[in-house]
Amino acid sequence: xxxxxxxxxxxxxxxxxxxxxxxxxxxxxxxxxxxxxxxxxxxxxxxxxxxxxxxxxxxxxxxxxxxxxxxxxxxxxxxxxxxxxxxxxxxxxxxxxxxxxxxxxxxxxxxxxxxxxxxxxxxxxxxxxxxxxxxxxxxxxxxxxxxxxxxxxxxxxxxxxxxxxxxxxxxxxxxxxxxxxxxxxxxxxxxxxxxxxxxxxxxxxxxxxxxxxxxxxxxxxxxxxxxxxxxxxxxxxxxxxxxxxxxxxx
Amino acid sequence: xxxxxxxxxxxxxxxxxxxxxxxxxxxxxxxxxxxxxxxxxxxxxxxxxxxxxxxxxxxxxxxxxxxxxxxxxxxxxxxxxxxxxxxxxxxxxxxxxxxxxxxxxxxxxxxxxxxxxxxxxxxxxxxxxxxxxxxxxxxxxxxxxxxxxxxxxxxxxxxxxxxxxxxxxxxxxxxxxxxxxxxxxxxxxxxxxxxxxxxxxxxxxxxxxxxxxxxxxxxxx
Lengths: 250, 221
Hints:
The structure holds two protein chains of two kinds. Chain A is of the alpha/beta class. Chain A is built from nine helices and ten strands. Chain A has one domain: 3-Layer(aba) Sandwich (Rossmann fold), CATH 3.40.50. In chain A, α4 (120-133) crosses α5 and α5 (149-161) runs parallel beside α6 (179-194). Chain A is globular. Chain B has a single domain (5-219), classed as MetI-like fold (Orthogonal Bundle), CATH 1.10.3720. Chain B is 82% helix and 0% strand. At the A-B interface, α2, α3 and α5 of A face α7 and α8 of B.
């Protein structure tokens, strides 16, 4: 494992990235750099391409134009490159997507065992540590459908962390949750942010963004219209589209 | 008219053997059908290309033509085409295997497509290699989801073996009609095989219903 990424080198670099669904342009010539340790929150209206942006970073969608370089691996690439990128970039989904037929323990240990060749015993220990960290250790032998949404999402975070990724993508991680469960997930994410993890988060939780993010992106129609530090972002009211969006959700 | 139990008892070894033939032909056809059906299913999942078109054509063709026509065709035409002699039992297995393969391919495909896309996305995002995604993430839930349809198909296949009486395969329906003709005890033999079919098939119907209920409870829709 090489650890040659210096703090200020960009960990993710997108160059003129476009993505079409049929004739619909989901990502429109996106160029952006994200450095290690940054906590980036992406906001914007639905259908603006936020989820698609996260999904191309993890090669869940292949891009039609441009290139993405993550941890020195270039996308689009072959299956080996794709898996290399995915090992270093974890993802958390809106709908949790836990493996429904596996226990919580198996959910967390499966990927390290088959894609990092971690021994079962070590994977188990890692899973226990991570599940303690997200506060679900008592449920380790249960199945996902016996857990609440908030618990499932915390397991999903632990599952992604078990791969020891260098960056984590969050696609509206609290949007499918009942209000009282949002906090427990955001607490886990806050703790993760403090640990220095590189995070890219699509969210509507402005309070969380304001407090945890170091950088804010506003996306509309497949482009990042605003890219600024969090302090700037929450003072800036000059951008007409951003102003309209913010007044709608705040 | 009275029910002649003596006839039934006298010929029960023949009926029992015919019962065995029905099961054996069903089992062989199912096994071969599963193997061919898996390939056809994989072909159809490609959505384009040569493998897709071949699989699609195969499935459409064998699902559309009547089973009896397929049976007669394999029995009368296939030996001519290949210039070999094929026993009627083998013809029966070939015809029912093709029939099974076409239906099972669609059942498998429906089961695989019913696995939520998010499960596969999550597995990919964890860099899980393709082989393991199929083996652990797609196939087990797909099997659970296809179980009711699969067991229902099995009952259809067991019933379809009776069509092989048309080409003189010694399964239950053919044996009963022959014994009936020989002894003029149609009533006894046809009633007997009706009961035998019921005893053979009904447990599977119950199983299919149970599998369906379990699935409903598990997936909630």
